[in-house]
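User: Round two. Same drill as before: sequence, then structure, for each protein.

Assistant: Same drill it is. First protein:
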Amino acid sequence: MASKQTILEDLQGIPDSLLEEVQDFIRFLKERARKERCESALLSEPSLARDWLRPEEDEAWQDL
């Protein structure tokens, strides 16, 4: 697995003409990770809702 330091060292050797493409790829990777986190949360919601939407849960939290 590459470390930030090795990636930074690799960046030192990249021509300026490719830096925009590298930055686009980094943004793509960040956005993909963000979407995957959101998707995981949405996919787990029905499973969690079975516990959250029980009358026992409403009763337990009614005093807050």
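Second protein:
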Amino acid sequence: MQGMSRVLITINSRQDEETVEQSLTGQVFQKDKSLYIRYEEPGASGAESIRTLVKVTQDELKVIRHGEVESEQSFRKGEALSGFYRSPYTRFAMIAHTRELGVDMQGFTGKIHWEYELEVHDVISGNFAVSLTIQEEVHSHDD
């Protein structure tokens, strides 16, 4: 594994008309020809946090989540790729129909954006747009 960089990640996610923004710290590293972005999302009240790993290649994105929620979903523009979602209460397969996928990274900083329809049990359950903005973590020094 080559160098790892600590970063600030701003996640904007829109489901249909509802938008949520989160700012989290994480790490970015490169392994082979893939870029990996790792961060933790706080869990629902009192629940354990969810560890998320985003694998970025030239034309595909894979989001893997571990914790109280386990899920894996891949995105490739113009394709329908299967994945799964699992929690203590339910589990199901899902298919992401990816309309847009844009990766604009310079080293360990930049922006990743994707839009997709999510299909669950043969029904479209929503339209999603997600963007990750990745910035180097700035350390302040008290002199």
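Strands lie at 4-15, 18-31, 34-41, 50-56, 61-66, 70-75, 80-86, 91-106, 109-120, 123-136.

User: Perfect.
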